[in-house]
Amino acid sequence: MEQRTALEKDTVLKCRDNSLSYTIQKEIARGGSCIVYDAVYQTDFGEEKPIRLKECYPFELNIRRTKTGEVIPGGGDKEKFEEAKDNMRRAFRKGNGLFLTEGLTNSMTNMLRCFDQNNTVYIPSVYLEGGTLTYHTFSNMKDCIRIVRSVSQVVAGIHKAGYLYLDMKPDNVFVLKNTAGGSATELVQLFDFDSLVRIKSLKEKNMSGCRFSYTKGFAPLEHQMGQFHKFGFYTDVYGIGALLFYLIFGNPPRAAECVSDAEYCFERSKYGNISYQDKLFVKLSDFFHKTLANYRFDRYQTMGEVVERLNELSGLANTAIPYVCSAIVPQNRYFVGRCHELMVLEEWFGQGASQCFFLTGIGGIGKSSLAREFVSANAIEFDTMLYLYYRDSIQHLLIDDVGLQINTAKQEPAESDSDYFIRKLRILSRILAQKKALLVIDNFSGEITEEFLQMLRVGWKVLVISRDKPPSDNGAQLRLEALQKPSQLYHLFENYSGLKLKDDEKRYLDHIISKSDGHTLILELIARQIKSSRITIAEAETLVEKSGFSNMSSEKIRFEKDSRTGRETIKNIIFVVFPYHGQDQEKKRILKALSLFAQPGVELDIFSEMMELASMDPVNELEEEGWITCSDTMLSMHPVIREVVGGWEWKDRYLADAGHITEFLYVRLRTEAERAEFPLPYLKINGYLNSVFEKDSKTGDWLEKQAHKKGMIGEVWKKRVSQGGAQKATDHRKVKQILQLAESVLDESRKTEALGKLDICIELAGYVLLHMPVDREEYIIRHTEELIHEPACKNRYVITTLYHKLISVYLEQRALGKAWELIEAMKSFARDSNQHIKAEYYDMLADFYDTRLDGQYEHDNEYCDLGKLMKAIDRSIFHMKLARDGRKEILLTQYMLNKANVLMRSTPKNKKGIVRLLEQAGRKIEKNAQKYSGLRWEYAMSVAWYYTLIVPDEIQAMKYCSIADDIVGKTCATELEHIDIIVIPYANMMTELGNLEKAQELLRSGIKTCGKYQEILPYARKKMELYQYLLEVCYYSGDEDACRKVMESMEAEDK
Amino acid sequence: MDNYTKSMGIKALEAANEDYPREIILDTAGMFRTFAASLDEFIKEHGYNGDLGDINQKSAYIRTAFENAGISPMPRSIKEWYTKDKGISRRTGFQICFAFGLDKEGTDDFFRRVMLMKSFDCHVMEEAVYYFCLCRGMNYLKALEMLHSLPDKDIPNVMNSRMVFDGDILFTSTIVREIDKFQDPEELLDYFMVNAEKFGYNHAGATEEIQKLWKKLRGRGDGLADLERTKIQMLDVNMESVRSTSEVFRQILGLDEVEEKEDGRIEPLFVIKSDRSIKPLLENNPLLPKVAERQFPNRQTIEKILKGEHVEPESIRKTLILTYFYYFWIRKAFPNQNDRFITSKNMMVYQASDGDDERFISDINKMLLEVGYLELYLGNPYDWIFLYCSKSQEPLTVFREFIHEMYLENEEYIHSLNGNQDKQ
Questions:
Q1: A803, A833, A863: which is the final residue of a domain?
Q2: What are the C-alpha distances in Å from A739 to residues A629, A661, A802, A849?
Q3: ipTM of the complex
Q4: In this structure, what CATH number is given to the domain that contains residue A2?
């Protein structure tokens, strides 16, 4: 407890030389080592003048005051009291020394003398109006900073004079009153120089026995630990930082506030509720880090640096100066990749000439995240940064005083929006002149209007984020695409799902990524769904495959978009991200129709024809709005948008369009896929009818009406007629394209009941399967089995052909059991059908037996398959002769060739019968088959076999193989077919004829071809088959070395 | 800095710069002054001119000091301080301070260099009295007089205490500030009377700091320990629950490493089966002087501290140092907020930059001083470990290597204990 007794009022103290006497008025303060009084002395004219009087009276010592005013220390404290008095005398000398230093005079207490009385020491000093600094002295940040700046300048002067102050605390700072009665910030006085120490003494380590007292909280670590050899200017720097800290927070800093990554809650300070520039607090934090750092070399090393920083802070704290309140942009929780894009933005902001930058891309791709990342990473570069969300117009955006706050400007009640807009722009131009300012406008749409240009004239850099294409090609722009690097996508996924991706899970994720085209938001949503539903990635992939990502789950997940968070299903989230607000029905129609087509989209002219578009304007507008993409001639829609639009309700108009598209594809497929096989006589008729249409419009109209009555068949006929009578090879590229489009439409129809019910979809499905390339085994099997059991599929020809196709696939796979099951099913179907279908049934049967025979035609097998094969072929020929449809002759020829081929192997001596068959087939081909028909190469190969097995003639055999090869080269859809049709039989023939070298060459070329399609199973199987044949050929040739090499290759393939 | 401290500093630097410092550490372990040797140094500084090899003479010198100071009863076993190299109690330590007329700074220095423990704990009434008297040059008799007047019965049992930091906690620093204002012993006794129930716990400041640090280490998913595991060590972490103290503690020490067996099983590399305690690793370890072994941080004490329960002062200090050491170096690996979420990091993140050793030492010293403990001291074997690790290029790695070395030293013993455990 404080037990010191002050001198009483009116006590008179006289100097030793009696020159002056001081009369005590009152005690005004007590420190640890002294008591301070207000006193007066008399001038030469007898007037009283005030004076401050300091008395040496240490608190910690046991000292009592007598009635006469003397202070007497207790026994044990005499020595300490003498020491305290000596300290005070030394402090007086040091203080005076500093007072007389140029630049410091006004900042030092003017101590007038130092005299002894009452067994203690007194120091009178010039009286000034004011008081010591406290937490409550100032009420705004600017004044706090300014007063600390003033203190720093004084301390800088002390350093210059060769001293360290070492006793910074509020009690040692005297703040003068200004004329208005408030506290001045420009002039302060320091007193209490007990701790002043010469820097030279520290360097000379001449400090033995010295103790450095300190005030807790205001002394840095080296001071607290008494490590004087570590003292330096930075020791006082700490004191300055602590002083400012105290004025802001009301207490000196604690250890946690002195670490390098300390965070300061300015909101909890006295000035937390006042609106200051955000930059102020960033800079203040930096100031504290560099003044309060425990490690002395992390602090500012000179007081000059401190003064400079405080100058800057003072400016930032001045609320009278107009400034723009920077936006607070929340940091991205996760951000992956985009290094190049960030660099582009940084370059643009730093050095780019263009004032405006357009960042575009589809919704959810990460435009706003990128902008936020750019802003966060470069926060220190901006003097001002604003992040605004576009609504109606630029004017509305900028006049909003909540979004764009200027501390000294507000819209007046009577002021119109346009007037305020102009005024605000003017103020902004002034404030931001010579400043690095960035304005981000998110979700912009529209044109470059006059308002937009006016906004640019403010002089800031403007980053515009939009889904739409930039309205102008001028200026900097970047279209944000999906992340490309798998590692980045994996990391994004891991972050959101909270799972570490295992190697065997990557393929599932790759598939999900592929399905969504790497769309950032979709990946995030799927990852969150996995976390929320606790499903594996494999399970998620299955759901996405089956239901699409928007329907993969009905569970709600947490998501964050544009700083807003919520819980919703994926479907609803996506719908929110991609809302279509437009009223234009034509555009909606186009979007809905285009949603039927998966990547890579559809050719523009085909789409235009399908939709019967009167104008391309809606398409162009949709492209500009970012809903669709048009590159070269292809029109496409991002998978995410496709899924969204696909989720729109199927209104009648849309269903009508879908039906129309399906019909279009059906007609195209039928006419293009079978072009080369269309019977020649009918082709000639079509040629004639085509000329009728062109020349005789009346007849043409009538014919058209008739065709219209026939529905789809009529449409097909019309298309065929329009193609004329020219014999052309089937354009497999076109067929592939149509198949791709049709496949996409059919996939959609399977997901949508309304669409799936359309009859035309069933029809189309059948023909798609019929013409699907053989290497799409899985697709064929899956969908054929579905379709042949579909009640709505009624076309018996289609069903029969589908059965045949499926059986062929199973036979190719050597799945004889499955094939037989289908044949049995077909048997009962055929029993109730016409001759054509019966004939086809026997043809399927023949294929089965042929496969089971496995080329062993010399003698029958245990199943008597040779006999059964011959019988089946004969039955097929018999029934086809009785059939009455247009394709009869073609199929009949086919069966005759089949018979000839089997006879050549099984009964080569039956030369007559074989020749007869071949000649008959040849005649039929000339009459009925187009020059690119498959029948022709079949015929050529049959003749080649004749010259191999019946009348061995290598030259003739090679000749006919070349003819076949030539035709096949122009007509076959896949290389797999070429291998089956040409390579294997040709090699076989050459082996039979003894040209093993040629055989090997052919087989090796086939193996090489298969090697190009490693990932496709049918090719892989074919490759092994070819190796087997090659091994046999090498064996026949007696080349052991070659045999070994082939076996090694086979083993390697097997692995 | 005295020669002893200088030479321990040189050893620390040597060990830090050596890739395989086992021999240096062994050597250093033998160099640390025993209590007896430190006491010799002390009495030499305080007027002893006799033969330092003469135990009787030294004991007599100390006894005389006690007598002159009127300290009674005198400790009986002064000779045993030398012959058995036994330590002394805190009370005896304070008596020595009174006997040799030390002030506050002198007492702090004595406890730091000789006792190797915290100086005044003013949250303990007895020591608050010692603080009051020694600061004011009052003798032991006065202190004893005050001790007889303490309101002992009103003080809650510290063993049952539990600090909850959203309540009304009296920090030791506040007590010290109050004591500094008192002139009269009566004032201090009155203060004790009024605040007796708040003397039922101590080390509030240090406890609070440790709890704050552990919260940052153990946050689910974004705790620094979890981040180290997933982003640097590339291992999985169960996101469903907060990891146990034992797990995180083992991770800090580097005892969570695993190895793949021949049959593909993954097994822990360091197996200590004794109730998850690391005591077998520390016991009689040649790399670890007894003083460092005493109150070495362990799972049980950390759990108690996290619950706000009472533990020994030395436990608190050592736990604070270990926790802050890990926090400082792992925080360096994730300097930016965003870094936590981006791609995994490589092992370079453990590297220290220029000046980081001084930064760590400054930070931990500041923290220790603020919570009433003494700063790191090179002559303290426990402190020495962290000082030497901080000076290396990869402080956290080097620390974990040190722990691994200790394991290897005691491996046979550990295995035998594990075997006994299995049998049970």
A1: A833
A2: 22, 13, 16, 32
A3: 0.85
A4: 3.30.200.20
